[in-house]
Write a structure and sequence with these properties.
Blueprint lengths: L1 H6 L4 H8 L4 H15 L3 H4 L7
């Protein structure tokens, strides 16, 4: 159910169609990579002396 929500699928059937046969480790690695791409780092999220 968590994966369904993360992928924003309308139904569990869609999630199962694409993710049931995929290795859980591969899926976790992919989600970590995607999360790192869209999550600001500490330096990006906190203002510095130059940006204040």
């Amino acid at each position: 159910m968590v994966l369904k929500e993360l992928m924003r699928h309308a139904s569990m059937t869609t999630t199962e169609k694409y993710y049931v046969d995929i290795n859980a480790q591969e899926t976790a690695k992919y989600l970590r990579e995607v999360t790192l791409e869209v999550t600001p780092t500490k330096n990006e999220s906190q203002p510095t002396a130059e940006t204040r």
